[in-house]
Amino acid sequence: MSANETTYKIQAMRELLAKKLTRSVVGSLVGCVHCGMCNDACHYVKTHPDDPKMTPSFKADQLRKLFKYNYDWTGKVFPWWVGAKEPLTDADLDVLKDIAFGTCTNCRRCTLNCPMGVDTAVLNRIMRGLLTSVGVMPEGVRVVSKDQWEIGNQMGVLKEDYLETLDWMSDELVNEVNDPNARIPVDEPDCDVIYAINPREAKYDPRTIAAAAKIFWAAGESWTMPSEGWDQTNFGLFSGDDQLGGAAARRVYEKMKELKAKRLVISECGHGYRSTRCEGPNWAGIDQDFQMESSIFTMLRYLKEGRIKVDQAKLRERVTYHDSCNLARSCGITEEPRELLRAVATDFVEMTPNRAENFCCTGGGGAMSMSEYTPRRLESAKVKADQIAATGAKIVVTSCHNCVDGLSDLIKHYKLGCEVKQLVDLVADALVIEECAVMKKAKVVEMPKPALPLDGRRILVVDDEADIRTFLRTVLEDAGAEVYEAGDGNQALAQARALKPNLITLDLSMEGKDGIETFAELRSENGLASIPVCVVTGHPEFREVIYSRAVPPPEGYMDKPIKEEQLVENVRRILGLQDHKLHA
Ligand code: SF4
Ligand code: SF4
């Protein structure tokens, strides 16, 4: 490589970095005080305690050096003191590549332990993005990115192979449920649900497609799978390439719009969910006007609505649950998978730590595609292996295809003698077919359900008092709404980003981030600003404060205690439903 080409690459990285410098990124770049409190959170540090190059701060410092050299005054005045430096050679770029791709899975566990709020994974993803933009990346990342760009899915599954697999699984379904009319519909318009999958399912594990089809069939769902735009995963999240992220997400959204489906159900995949549900609309630059949810929520809803019935006693072996970093830490999905798991297994034990504190499976961040780092990855997997072994479980359940691969690899390497399954496998196995919706429908003529005043509306209830949340939830659910809860401001913002509710009810006086601050942040964040807010407060003295903010006022305001009918009426007024007739 000539010196000119290297100079060009570094110039391109510099220019791309300038575009990434949002307030929160700069906060993470300048906020690190190198206290080392995050070190112990990282599985690479735990398994390489004497190597300072494994610490989160060292990894993030690589981007800091570049930032300080080009954009921070301290780097201009005292470059030697603050470590401001640019890569100069291709060898320097290779070193950066090995750090960004080979020593961090972007799991964000260190972020939780940083008192300064530094998000090391965000910085590492930016470094990956700078490197991939100039063609410096592991070969596996190059191949997978190319497949997703050119063929439309990460594993290069051709359309005819994908359709053939669906056909094959359709036949399996007919045999399994003994119903000649059972099938996997493809490209049917106007369905309630489109089911998008991880290409790993079509290529290596089609049983999960058959399992999901069995559940949809049992629930009597109106559903289809798309012939294109079916890959809900997104390598842009791992490679740091927002353009790839946007292109991959757009394919899925466009197919949804073409088929006019109401809800996109995303099969169990942590990074796929985070990419498609949370990051994709920003990368793709479009607002989606349909609902999106993880299949975890879909299965749980079927169970709660009595559309499927399961027999818990069918699974008596000990099971444990591995939280995917993307689902638990980045998207806050921790309780729903457990609720589902408890319904289908008699002996469920937690691994410790768990939920948002769980350790990465070590296959995250695209690590499974980078074979040159496998030995180091498997060394770092010792932490996870010890966690699993301590549970004595025979089955490790996870809601992520990436984690299935990462966990299976470490289970084999450390000879743990257990297997990995997903919730979809367990729920499908536990189905009591005779009691499911499709069978009940065959037996009785269903009466149409009466229309409810908030049918189909998704509402986020934010209040730090659990009993108030329960009251609001009950009233709104009785009125037909789909209700989600948050107990403080930070949870509320994360939930609002993930769920894009139709309306938020907001308490003002809360521990931690209060409602006033939360309201201001909601109003100032793209994608959240237009969500209507109904303040529900026991502190009328704050009314002035909330209405005097330099942002559009809340759409509704209610003093506690509130009456049930007033709440429903207020919500209907805010949502513009008052003049609408309830559909019969
Ligand atoms: S990232 Fe946070 S916890 Fe880690 S060294 Fe820096 S300031 Fe300390
Ligand atoms: S994001 Fe995860 S892998 Fe990366 S430095 Fe932090 S804890 Fe370690």
**Sheet with the most strands: spatial strand order:** 10-9-11-12-13
From the helix content, strand content and strand pairing, which structural class follows? alpha/beta
Compounds present? iron/sulfur cluster
Question: Residue-averaged pLDDT, rounded?
Answer: 93
- Largest sheet: number of strands, sense, barrel closure: 5 strands, parallel
Low-confidence stretches: 580-584
Rough shape?
A: globular
Helix content: 40-55%
Concise structural overview:
This protein has 584 residues and is α/β, with parallel strands linked by helices.
Task: Give the helix/strand layout.
Elements: H1 3-20, H2 23-31, H3 43-47, H4 56-71, H5 73-77, H6 79-82, H7 90-102, H8 109-112, H9 120-133, H10 139-150, H11 159-177, E1 193-196, H12 199-203, H13 207-219, E2 223-224, H14 235-239, H15 242-259, E3 263-266, H16 270-284, E4 291-294, H17 295-304, E5 318-322, H18 325-330, H19 335-344, E6 347-350, H20 374-380, H21 382-391, E7 395-398, H22 401-413, E8 419-421, H23 423-430, H24 437-443, E9 458-462, H25 466-478, E10 482-486, H26 489-499, E11 503-506, H27 515-524, E12 533-537, H28 543-547, E13 556-559, H29 564-574
Parallel strand pairs: 1-2, 1-3, 3-4, 5-6, 5-7, 7-8, 9-10, 9-11, 11-12, 12-13
Residues 32-38, 56-57, 114, 116, 118, 120 line the site of one iron/sulfur cluster.
